[in-house]
Amino acid sequence: MRDFHSPAEGAFAEERKENQQRTVLVEMHREAQTFFVKQLEGTLEGKAARAYLEDRGLDKDALVRFGIGYARAAATLLLRHLKIEVRGKTPR
Which of 75, 76, 89, 74 is nearest to 24 (CA)? Predict the structure, then answer.
């Protein structure tokens, strides 16, 4: 006997897949934002960036409220960080 799959089942499966992808992307953005905040708070370059932001009138409360972080010149830092995070959260 052949398995019968209605078009609605296919649509539900596709929607489930899209929701899972969306969830992964949202989590990745959250992780990136946390990473950039830590770069602002915990690096020498971040210290200089904080001083610049304070000179521009942004206090600690504004940085927290708007989730402001710092992207260092090394473009691959975030990518390496995300690879480590994903590896640590992915079941094997």
Answer: 89
Q: Whole-prediction pTM value?
A: 0.71
Place of tokens 């959260």: 89
Q: Which of 36, 88, 44, 43 is nearest to 67 (CA)?
A: 36
CATH of domain 7-89: 3.90.980.10
pLDDT in tens, 1-39: 556 666 667 778 888 889 999 998 899 899 999 999 999
* 37 exposure class (CB count in 10 Å sphere: 0-12, 13-18, 19+): middle
pLDDT digits (tens, 9 = 90+) for 38-59: 999 999 999 999 999 999 999 9
Residue 41 tokens read as 């708070």
- Extents of the domains making up the chain: 7-89
